[in-house]
């Protein structure tokens, strides 16, 4: 029976969290049928199984994290002694297209495998540790094995332990197996039970928890937290900002209904990066790598949190094409349909934090990029026009940049160029 392992789900991802199983034990699956939804640090994806057959075992429950390479499913033959492999797989995952011959599992094998799987729900490689003591003997055979601690339960029967690893772990830490409550099938003591007992002994009784609710830093929220912490830790950032007269900017937006304010700002950003390419770069070791393509990220708020979709090769798109790409990615983000590829590889990020009703923000750079540009809310303010005081639509542009890749002159020159485009958008677009 082939094991289907959790494939590489995208760039740099090492684990995934089970969200929903789409099949149950005993179900028959076809080639490339989605069998489970997995949440990674990038997105929630459906994982297709490259085998056909009957699901004989599942590994992991919703909410449980599995490392890439861990076994997700064991698939048995639907009838014939051979099955086919599609070869249609996710990123970085390969399947053989050769045909294998496999024996049909005996009922006793299935019972043994069931207990062993419960013993090791997610080992490092996802492969259950073989049982050295059959389940029928586990309850009757003394569990001592030289443990040096009492292992016979009060009712005269030995604690149910299958794995030698569990026995050794208990023995090395001086734990009596008959004093540990097993949570496996039939009361089998699993490794997690021993580790729970060790943790209880090592951890002092905690103080009464503070009132409130706890939000686990995992999935998308955990990925965002890790990236922001890395940015603050590794990037010596500086921030420059400027107020701009956005009256004509709003007029240009009104004249192009299919183009959003963020899309217009993105267009001016791409033009600016063409003149100041140092900001479209990243630091690798002791070198600054100035990139040829502009893969433009933009911040999008969703029900799952903040995500940064990436529009690839933005430098080659027209204003209308760029606006269309941003709109499509935003819709996919809010529907939870973005793939890991859609959110990786960015070289520069733009953000419209004015939608939150704020004037400015010292934004954190999206590591490993070198800069992030944002625009605040556009409001009526007094402004000098041709020496006369007038009420104009005014906004603030803010640029946070990695001071390793350029100095303030370059950053200021880029920001002033974008500001000029915002104040005279028709002129900037006419020059394209």
TrEMBL record:
Gene3D superfamilies: 2.40.50.100, Chloramphenicol acetyltransferase-like domain, E3-binding domain. InterPro entries: 2-oxoA_DH_lipoyl-BS, 2-oxoacid_DH_actylTfrase, 2-oxoacid_DH_E2_comp, Biotin_lipoyl, CAT-like_dom_sf, E3-bd_dom_sf, PSBD, Single_hybrid_motif. One of its GO terms (molecular function) is acetyltransferase activity. PROSITE patterns: BIOTINYL_LIPOYL, LIPOYL, PSBD. Transmembrane segments: none annotated. PANTHER family: DIHYDROLIPOAMIDE ACETYLTRANSFERASE COMPONENT OF PYRUVATE DEHYDROGENASE COMPLEX, LIPOAMIDE ACYLTRANSFERASE COMPONENT OF BRANCHED-CHAIN ALPHA-KETO ACID DEHYDROGENASE COMPLEX, MITOCHONDRIAL. Belongs to the 2-oxoacid dehydrogenase family. This is Dihydrolipoamide acetyltransferase component of pyruvate dehydrogenase complex.
